[in-house]
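User: Hey, quick favor. My workstation is busy. Could you predict this chain's structure for me?
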Amino acid sequence: MSTTTQTYTVTGMTCDHCARAVRAEVSDIDGVTDVDVDVVHGQVTVTSTQAVPVAALRSAVTEAGYTLTA
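Assistant: No problem, here it is.
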């Protein structure tokens, strides 16, 4: 099975609780197989079996209480 990995910038994360919230929401997106959250650098790396629409990622990150900026 082929996977794709994309890294995005997320603002507002400051702690492990933030990371868990973002990871939980993004993990619910169809096709997502892994989510790595780097609070220090404000990045979220998403591995998936299909292209994940940026709108879906933005919505998930917003639901967690943060902002997807890139």
